Amino acid sequence: MHEPEWAEHGMHSRAENDSYAAWLISEASKPPLPATAISQFTGRVLRRVAEGLQTGDRDNSLQADLQFLEAELLDRLVDPATGNLYHQTLPDAANSVKSPPLFAPKPKAGWPLSPFHVSVAAEAFAAGLLAQAGCDVSVQYGANQPRYDLIAAKGDRMLQLSVKGSQDGGWGLVQGHKSKDVDYATAIDLWATTHSPRLVFCFVQFQGVALGECPRVYLATTGEVAGAMKASRNGHGNTTLREHYVFKKGVAAGYVDRIALQWTFSASRIDELLRAAG
Q1: How many CB atoms lie within 10 A of CB 108?
Q2: SS3 150
Q3: Which phi-psi region, left, alpha or beta, contains residue 147 (left: φ > 0; alpha: ψ -120 to 50)?
Q4: How many H-runs (helices) and E-runs (strands) does the chain carry?
């Protein structure tokens, strides 16, 4: 499918976002999705569009979020002619659906960083976003401090955060615990035991992010991360948490790993984690 010039450069107007959201809702209304699933999915799309309109989509995240919702929808749509899920026959079956004005914009080239600068920039952006969200932010004094990097507090509630930066679309977490004698699930459990269940991971992704742009940021607890890692590769587990990755071969061929949309950095996500922390 030919993509217009604005899609090639990752630019999306408000009218195109509105059209995209309308397409998502129309596709979700088709069988065989149950009525409750249709209602929930439609509500999520509309809420996200409303948030984008209220904020002016200053961080350009609306389009990315709608694309995550599109991918989730395709995972659940069944081709009535074959009975196959659309994602099992991409791209041909996906193109048999009436495509929205945009489908899969080409990723932009990012700003290359050294591993050291990825780490420094990730922590700096995390601290800045937390402060912008109304948190009091504290940084541990001294080099290579254990357990966490930042503290974010609102009133009497507090979060300890471990910041993980990346510019390749994934975060390697469990490889130090995996060996030929240790399977993925066991390695993930071992990794989880080394972190407090109250710890919050702040994943910062610079892939495709130009100089001066805000990276994509996600917040998740130790338990949430462990669950996602075990579900990776179609339930076979993985040592790396992926933002969005399509497996092309092996036991997970055709499976798509996607980071949970509800982990996306937002004031409501921070408040949710603060309430859970007590």
Answers
A1: 15
A2: strand
A3: left
A4: 9, 9
